[in-house]
Amino acid sequence: MTIPLTPDATRLPLNTRRATSTFGMSVLGLLTANLLPFMVIALQDSLGVSVAEAGTIMTGSLLATALACIAVTRLAEGSRRIAVARVGLVVTALGFGVAAFPLGATVTVVGVIVGGAGAGGALAASGAALAALRNPNRMSAANGLVNRAVVTLVLAVIPLVGVGLGSVYGFVAALAIVLLVTSGWLPAAPVLDSPDPVRRAVEPPASVGTRRITIAGVSLLVMYAVWAISEDSLWAIAGTMGADNAQLSDAALGVVLSASSAGGFFAALVLILLGDRVGRALPMAVLLIVGGALKLGTSLATDPTVYGV
To answer: pLDDT tens-digit profile of 72-119?
Structure first.
């Protein structure tokens, strides 16, 4: 008698090594976006470019991250996962390592974009590794909390050192080198080629509610894209707005940005603890409305306290 395997039976349990490598690479892959305010300021001060020009450079870096992540996703799903991670980490370290030194505008821009592409490889590997762990939904939630916690700390510490090419891009390069040592700890569970018998047994026929599900899915993706554009656009110039409009020092700005990231951590933690008791639609609607109002308030604030709140 053959006993059908559940999805988690083919996945690996979480341990310290797998958590360090998987969560660490996820943090690295998203670090460019999270350090965007400081990276824009560093480019402005070091290269003498405008906010728009610095933002364009960072847009190129983030685009490189996204394209690289998409390009290597299939490779990261299988046995080449660790190789993909290592190549991505090496490229990240080289690109951002070069950008950390004042070697001229052209070299810096190329380094920032190449470093972003490398981060995309690390992000693809970490995403596949999360799916290889038992209870991937819970692992994704834990990964988000770890990401917020690390970013909160980094955003508070970097201004104390000084916002510059070396402190910002050098930190990312150094982290990539450290994670290179842990790359062999990534979970490498086998990929099942045959359809999952358990999933096949519980899934409804394709004709049931397909159109409604498709419309809901597309609507959710469009909404997420619009939200992401507003979120990342504001975050990219949050440092500049804090300095120019609200007259915040680098140290005070670091505290504000760190507190903002900490707010994301605690909000995610609360929603995890609440579970399904409040559903998904209601919290999403409330957070979108509140978030939109606060974005507008941030862009209009000229008082340091109001901006911080």
So the answer is: 988 888 788 999 999 999 999 999 999 999 999 999 999 999 999 999
Angle CA(8)–CA(84)–CA(91) in degrees, nearest 5? 140
Find out whether 69 and 29 touch, Cβ atoms under 8 Å: yes
- Cα 150 to Cα 108, 118, 268, 285, distances in angstroms: 26, 20, 14, 27
For helices 105-131 and 16-34, the axis angle rounded to 10 degrees is 140
Cα–Cα distance between 127 and 181 in angstroms, integer?
19
Q: How far is CA 201 from CA 2, 6, 102, 210, 213, in A?
A: 15, 11, 59, 17, 19
Residues 117-148 have pLDDT tens digits of 999 999 999 999 988 888 877 888 888 888 88
* Degrees, nearest 5: CA angle 64-68-72: 180
What lies within 8 Å, CB to CB, of 152 at 6+ separation is: 258, 259, 261, 262, 265
Contact 96, 115 (CB under 8 A): yes
Taking the C-alpha atoms of residue 225 and residue 205, their distance in angstroms, rounded to an integer, is 30
* Dist. CA 77–CA 125, nearest whole Å: 8
Residues 111, 169: contact at Cβ < 8 Å? yes
Q: What are phi and psi of 124, to 5 degrees?
A: -65, -40
CA angle at 28 for the pair 12 and 136, rounded to the nearest 5°? 25
Whether pTM exceeds 0.90? no
Label residue 226 exposed, middle or buried (CB < 10 Å: 0-12, 13-18, 19+): exposed
Residue 124 CA to residue 29 CA, distance in Å, equals: 8
Between CA 286 and CA 282 the distance in angstroms is 6
Written as one string, the DSSP assignment of 21-53 is HHHHHHHHHHHHHHTHHHHHHHHHHHH---HHH
